[in-house]
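Technical annex, item 7. During the second reporting period the consortium partners agreed on a shared format for inverse folding records so that results from different sites could be compared directly. Each record opens with the tokenized structure and is followed by the designed sequence. A conforming record, contributed by the partner at site C, is shown below for reference.
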């Protein structure tokens, strides 16, 4: 079964053609980051307009690269939630137009389910059930993936997402947006023990994260140093921040794995590209004899191939929509329809 997929939930306009949920026939991503970088973050109004400008070209290119026609695909999948509403609407409406004119089934896909599915493309043998750490710029969850379309949230962030924690602290250090990748590179040459930040206490659930304390501690440390006229050792600061974020993520994830009994562990989302997170999880899983999966680097960030993959499983579960489909800025990963 061949799925044509569209993703436009944030600042990447993407389209892809995917066979049977596992094989990429084409995947095109047009990034807007060069426009948002001057503002230090995504400007929703600009993002929506840029999706409008790019989407026809991206769609055409994805079809051309797969050497196929919209009439020859079996269904059209689109990210319908969650995300920036003005961005989502562009993709959803384009997908509805395609579904209507080509008379194809329309499959709404949850963006975070898509991130999880990027692993099905990278690992042909990976099947649920497993426990997944989904860490992106807007969300951070520990998700029990019981089946392809049956998910339960075990833990979540109480404030900032992991990607946001990287981006906000990176901004304080004067790094360009999105800061996560710059922080990661800088950190490779730094001493992770140069600065110590408080370990957050989260009341209620042992599996919930909190990153706002880290953000405040970093801002205070940098301001203090500036006031004293001290030069910021950028590599050391980046390495210390990265270590703190990774410690929080791995501690909670491994606790959840131990308590739920899952031994098949999966990373997903933009932050799953983080080199320390990958190394640390490799190490922990080797020691504890757990299986570990993460997406190839090209599939960690936003793309439409992952939407085509999840779209396949949503279609098989009967989760299709009619032309009244609307985008939603918020929606739980647990809810299928
Ligand atoms: O999943 P994603 O592409 O978009 C959302 O759905 O939000 O995630 C983007 C996030 C950004 O916060 C970005 O800084 C972060 O992923 N990110 C990284 C790395 N690469 C991207 N964070 C840490 N280390 C990286 N190597
Ligand atoms: Zn994403």
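Designed sequence (site C submission):
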């Amino acid at each position: 079964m061949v799925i044509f997929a569209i993703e436009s939930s944030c600042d990447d306009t993407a389209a892809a053609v995917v066979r049977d949920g596992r094989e990429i026939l084409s995947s095109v991503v047009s990034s807007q980051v060069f426009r948002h970088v001057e503002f230090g973050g995504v400007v929703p109004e600009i993002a929506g307009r840029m999706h409008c400008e790019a989407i026809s070209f991206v769609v055409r290119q994805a079809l051309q690269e797969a050497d196929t026609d919209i009439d020859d695909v079996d269904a059209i999948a689109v990210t319908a939630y969650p995300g920036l509403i003005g961005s989502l609407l562009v993709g959803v409406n384009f997908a509805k137009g395609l579904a209507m004119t080509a008379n194809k089934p329309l499959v709404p896909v949850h963006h975070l389910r898509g991130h999880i599915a990027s692993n099905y493309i990278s690992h042909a043998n990976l099947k649920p059930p497993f426990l997944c750490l989904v860490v992106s710029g807007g969300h951070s969850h520990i998700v029990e993936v019981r089946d392809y379309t049956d998910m339960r949230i075990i833990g979540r962030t109480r404030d900032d997402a992991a990607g946001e924690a990287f981006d906000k602290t990176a901004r304080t250090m004067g790094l360009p947006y999105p800061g996560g990748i710059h922080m990661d590179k800088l950190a490779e040459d730094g001493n992770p023990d140069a600065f110590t930040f408080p370990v957050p206490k989260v009341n209620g659930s042992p599996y919930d994260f909190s990153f706002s304390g880290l953000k405040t501690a970093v801002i205070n440390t940098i301001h203090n140093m500036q006031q004293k006229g001290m030069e910021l050792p950028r590599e050391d600061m980046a390495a210390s921040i990265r270590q703190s974020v990774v410690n929080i993520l791995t501690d909670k994830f491994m606790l959840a794995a131990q308590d739920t009994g899952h031994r098949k562990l999966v990373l997903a989302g933009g932050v799953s590209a983080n080199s320390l997170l990958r190394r640390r999880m490799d190490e922990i899983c080797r020691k504890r004899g757990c299986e570990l999966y993460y997406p190839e680097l090209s599939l960690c960030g936003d793309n439409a191939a992952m939407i085509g993959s999840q779209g396949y499983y949503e279609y098989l579960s009967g989760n299709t929509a009619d032309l009244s489909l609307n985008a939603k800025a918020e929606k739980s990963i647990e809810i299928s329809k």
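The domain at 128-297 is CATH 3.30.420.40 (Nucleotidyltransferase; domain 5). Residues 234-260 form the longest helix (27 residues). All partners now use this format for quarterly exchanges.
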